Amino acid sequence: MSSQQIDPLQHPEVQQASLRGYISGYGVTLAGLGVCLLITNAHFLSPIALLSTISALALILLIAQAFLFFGLDFSQHNIWKTFSVILTVPLFVLSIGLTVWMFHELNGLTMLPEMPGMPMQPTLLQ
Amino acid sequence: MDAHAASPPDNAPDLWHYGHDGNDPMAMKTLGFWLYMISDALIFGGIFAAYGVLDQPMGFYTGPTAAQIVHPGAAFLQTITILSSVLAYSLATVAMKTGNKNGVMLGIAASILLALMFLGLELNDFATLFAQHATPQTSGFLSVFFLLIATHGLHMIFGVLWMLVMLIQVPRFGLNTDVVTRLLNLRLFWQFQASVWVCVYIFVYLRGAS
After folding, report:
1. In sequence order, what are the beta bridge partners of A5?
2. Above 0.90 for ipTM, yes or no?
3. Residue B52 at interface with chain A, using a CB cutoff of 8 Å
4. Which of A50, A79, B23, B104 has the maximal Cβ count within 10 Å?
5. pLDDT confidence of A109, banded at 50, 70, 90?
6. Of B14, B53, B84, which has the smallest distance from its Cβ to A99's Cβ?
């Protein structure tokens, strides 16, 4: 027990706070969302290409935040947090992806085709 | 033994010790809160799934489409304020590393101000939509739109309340184990709001405007 710590400020989770990491996370996120805004306003991509591009950028930004903000890694004091996130990702894919896909298919089978004058916008899968 | 190690008094809480695989009390609390945050993220996942389902012509019913109500340029100002608020709080925890209570308080105060700016912009956005008769009752799409944005906004409000409590606890109790653990959990909660906003901004505002 000679290495036992009693000062909470020396706890690894307190000491993992990083000025460089947080400023980098802020800059990367802001720049990434700015790029997404510019791509969207430029209107040079088709809806599906735009959705794919900004979705990929969203994924990159979330991963960057996981490292730079949350400090996730495989160190002893973070490994369970990292694994819990990794194990939760399939739940997001299943719950959101399958729900949208199922209702998209259902719409195609049950809804009337596009009517003149109806406000139209491509769905997530179009 | 390093400079910070010491033999604890009998009544000192066991925080952690290197080389021991078990979690310490502080880490147990932050891990528990982390698991709560993941369940909270799944709530957002459910709302995003509903948004994906209702963001289509039948979901708009007689109401406006997403492209008619979202303004990604204006919402980018919200993006700047929320990310700045998260940065300010994160910097408060950098100050905490060295026991700088004034730095902690300053970071939290700045974070609160920026969060209030974010909420003000959001409320203004809601007021504008309501003035245009775009209310949650208008269509299924608007119901889930308001639900998603308001759920995130409610998280922001609770975060601000939590920070106000910490503004009282830090000077009153100092940076003891309980206060530090709460500040760590609040950091998780606040940084999580930035992650949710990335998804909201991209899949609601940008995708809606495309």
Report:
1. B16
2. no
3. yes
4. B104
5. confident
6. B53
Closest Cα partner for B56 from B151, B149, B132, B139?
Answer: B139
B56 shares contact with chain A (CB less than 8 Å): yes
Q: Do A3 and B8 touch (CB under 8 A)?
A: no
Below-50 pLDDT ranges, chain B: 1-6
A37 in Cβ contact with B31 (< 8 Å) = no
Q: Which of A79, A85, A65 is nearest to B193 (CA)?
A: A65
> Given CA atoms B140, B142, B144, B147 in this order, what sign does their dihedral have?
negative
Query: Alpha helix (H) ranges present in B24-139?
Result: 25-54, 57-60, 66-69, 72-97, 101-131
> What are the structural domains, with CATH classification, of chain B?
43-52+67-209 (1.20.120.80)
The beta-carbon neighbor of A29 closest among B13, B188, B194 is: B194
- The rounded distance, in Å, linking the Cα atoms of B103 and A99 is 46
**Residue-wise pLDDT tens digits, A4-51:** 567 889 898 999 999 999 999 999 999 999 999 999 999 889 989 999
State pLDDT tens for residues B74-104.
999 999 999 999 999 999 999 999 999 999 9
Cβ-count burial of B109 within 10 angstroms (0-12 exposed, 13-18 middle, 19+ buried)?
Answer: middle
Cα B92 to Cα A78, B122, B173, distances in angstroms: 21, 25, 17
